[in-house]
Amino acid sequence: MRIPALVPVLLALLLSTQGAAAEELVVIVHRDSGISTLSREQASHLFLGRVKMLPPGGRANVVEVEPLRASFYRRLLGREIAEINAYWARLQFSGRTQPPLRVSDSAAAVARVAEDPQAIAFVDAVPDDPRARVVLRLGP
Fold it and tell me: Where does the signal peptide begin and end (predicted)?
């Protein structure tokens, strides 16, 4: 039978997804933003659109990495992604604000932050780009 041959493949797949979920997430800003660190509370206010200005001033351009959203909000707020989606749907429907820009991967988020001194994003690894600075770490 082919079932025994699938066991190692399925086991490897399971272990690889658990490793990805256990990685540290970091919040990054442009190195010239004037921000050296953010508290969890400050980050939650920025990513939920409650605060629209970065701490030293200037409008925050918030960027989310689509595949990391669920893990990020679970770690930062202890909320499931369905709750976050419902929150943003209410805000959009009321016309109060728009949700953050979403990008497809961490590299796109790092590129956006590197180009925009007002950008803030979360990514799954410390960026190699010297124009980005880590301001908050969210462990596994």
Answer: 1-21
